[in-house]
Amino acid sequence: MERRAYGEDMTQSGTPTTGVLLAAGAGTRLGRGPKALLPFRGRTLVEVLADTLFDGGCSEVVVVLGAEADHVRSNTDLGAHTVVDNQNWAKGMAGSFRAGIEAAAPGNNIMVALVDQPGLTPTAVSRLLGSHRPGRATAAAYPDESGRLKRRHPVIFDVGLRSEAAAAANGDTGARSFLKAHPGLVDLVDCSDLCSGEDLDTKDQLHLLDG
User: Fold this and answer.
1) Are the beta carbons of 19 and 111 closer than 8 angstroms?
2) Are 120 and 127 in contact (CB under 8 A)?
3) For residue 198, what is the DSSP state?
4) What would you measure as the largest C-alpha separation in the chain, in angstroms?
5) Is the pLDDT of residue 171 over 80?
6) Is 69 helix (H, G, I), strand (E, B) or coil?
7) With contact defined as beta carbons under 8 Å apart, do 95 and 184 qualify?
8) Centroid of chain to Cα 73
9) Which among 44, 174, 48 has a CA at the least distance from the CA of 100?
10) What distances in angstroms separate CA 98 from CA 45, 58, 137, 165, one per listed residue?
């Protein structure tokens, strides 16, 4: 995909969307340091994923760091994006979720993505943005063995929902409690033809970095 000039909005609605990349985890189960610094496509995972959100149409990207934040900053080039720290990253994803929302432009929708999904592509980001309807949440989804769509990340929260979603975030579940409490607000968008929604959590999934 041709790289856009920074700040050019490619969303289909009138409200721009901030991409919030949660990259605070220590990657303990992988034993290779923070996931943000895993080598990927000749760069680091956090750099590629932040640019993926921007190239897919987010008007800005907020990267939330936590574990070894200073080390991650000094070994990456994230200068085109806003970088914030979650000092309480060890207490779970909720703090990173709230930190990202607080750093985003006040009038924007929010697209929350995880740094451990190397399969995410700009085309999938663009599809989600183009599918989003005002007042709702829009989530990437992938079929299970029965063919039923299962919600995954990224997830878009409409500007009118972001405060409530942030308040509901708890522990390591992020906004899951909000989404479960309001299933009627969530639109699922099948992205299985564009990318893999698999999370990189364990050593036997390191092959995901080969793409």
Assistant:
1) yes
2) no
3) -
4) 45
5) no
6) helix
7) no
8) 18
9) 174
10) 22, 18, 17, 9
Structure tokens at 163: 């405060």
pTM for this predicted structure:
0.91
Are 40 and 116 spatial neighbours (Cβ–Cβ below 8 Å)?
no
Distances (CA, A) of 191 to 10, 19, 139, 195: 18, 17, 9, 6
Sign of the CA dihedral running 5, 11, 13, 18: negative
Q: 3-state class of 120 per DSSP?
A: coil
The CA distance from 62 to 19, in Å, is 6
CB 194 within 8 A of CB 143: no
Pick the closest to residue 169 from 110, 106, 107, 121 (CA basis). Answer: 110
Strand extents, DSSP E, the chain: 17-23, 39-40, 43-44, 60-65, 82-85, 109-114, 137-143, 149-157, 186-190
Residues 174, 162 contacting (CB under 8 angstroms): no
pLDDT surpassing 60 at residue 179? yes
The mean pLDDT value of the chain amounts to: 88
**Cα pseudo-dihedral 48, 50, 56, 58, rounded to 10:** -170
Q: What is the pLDDT of residues 139-166, one digit of tens each?
A: 999 998 898 999 999 999 999 999 999 9
